Amino acid sequence: MTQLQRRKIPDAAIARLPIYLQILNNLAATNVLRFSSDELAALAGVNAAKVRKDLSYLGSYGTRGVGYEVTYLTHQIKRELGLMREWNVVVVGAGNLGCALAKFDGFLSRGFPVVAIVDNDPKKIGRTTSSLTVGDVNDLKNIVRDEKISIGVITTSSSASQAAADSLIDAGIKSILNFAPVVLSTPSSVSVRNVDLGVELQILSYFEQMRIETGGKSEGAPQLNTAGAR
Amino acid sequence: MTQLQRRKIPDAAIARLPIYLQILNNLAATNVLRFSSDELAALAGVNAAKVRKDLSYLGSYGTRGVGYEVTYLTHQIKRELGLMREWNVVVVGAGNLGCALAKFDGFLSRGFPVVAIVDNDPKKIGRTTSSLTVGDVNDLKNIVRDEKISIGVITTSSSASQAAADSLIDAGIKSILNFAPVVLSTPSSVSVRNVDLGVELQILSYFEQMRIETGGKSEGAPQLNTAGAR
DNA sequence: TTGACTTTGTGAATTAATGCACTAAGCCCT
DNA sequence: AGGGCTTAGTGCATTAATTCACAAAGTCAA
User: Which of A34, A149, B39, B163 is most deeply buried (CB count within 10 A of its CB)?
Assistant: First the structure.
């Protein structure tokens, strides 16, 4: 069977598409209809050629001499990123961070409703937080099936994070967002994104230190993250 | 005056040093004294040559035929990243996320005590959350000076985030960790790291979508973030 | 219709990051 | 002392990402 060949988009470009998308949303909100690569580049803080190249991976959706249409390009980016539908999310770990994320608007508003939250602590199971009742991590398999969950968010302690990942994978989850400062061991078929707040602060610390050592003459830290490399 | 020339370490390597550091802490906790680049590479999920190259930017701190010493290398990485001291943090935005971060162990335990939290909402100012009283964002200048704050964390709404950044910069802050899904406009002397949870989920969504379109035959998402490029 | 102007899309050059493969150094055993 | 073994450090080839710079393709006004 001849599978429709999906364009191979570089990791670095994929990591920027959500940024562009977010800017396009803002433009739409202010009734802007069209924009040029120069304008988007300025708003995103990147080079205009990079914007054009990134967008060209999606197809040839601009008009020479004119620019790009906000609504049309928004649609194309969403299609490419798989954002034409919602993806249900389960939060594993009902601590401070987990509960805050379960309530967090930013998830739902971008199409990632948190439909379940689980923990392994009997004292937490059964509690209610923002219209969700904390479930048992051992029921994850059923919860994932019943709630049609695609993405797992790990907000457990470091020590529990690998077990949480194993449970998610066992339940069939293929996409994990991990907040625990641990390198998870997972099959290569599973996508893991790590958000380690300590790491981010330590990177800032490096540049802060650098400024002190060089008497403030050094540049600031780079601002954007790429999708990186495993 | 001849400034001591600080080694120029590639961004990608800097972003990995905190990961190595975290693994070294785990090794120390389990009484491991020494390790080889192969072992660290396996734990960090990267190539061994990359580990050696990354560590070589710090200096020549390994012993051929033997490996690296956990405590000594830990010290060197901390020195390089500016982690021989604590850096005080202020959280701007006392919403769900802001309050959760103010309580979050991970910050203090890695040497970034949250010593103040501020908001612009009179209804929130004066409230107490985890031994901190919410201050007024307009007092930021005094707070930053009095509390010797080096890093600002922005957890406001998108619409308030640029104003929050401006206040921080005006108060002399040079390092910002931004959780709002906005590209902040800042002088190049200021370091900004963005943590956009929506972006992370959207990247996962891309690979999830890809798996569906290719019938599950595609690889997972890359796991590590580089320091990226502005 | 034509010509000036704008802006995309992309080959090609450049720069950055990665990973291989080998040399240099040290340990340990006999 | 010497030979075998291990592992760091690094030059070099490769791959990925970025940026330049220009041709192609459109708009618009006269």
Answer: A149
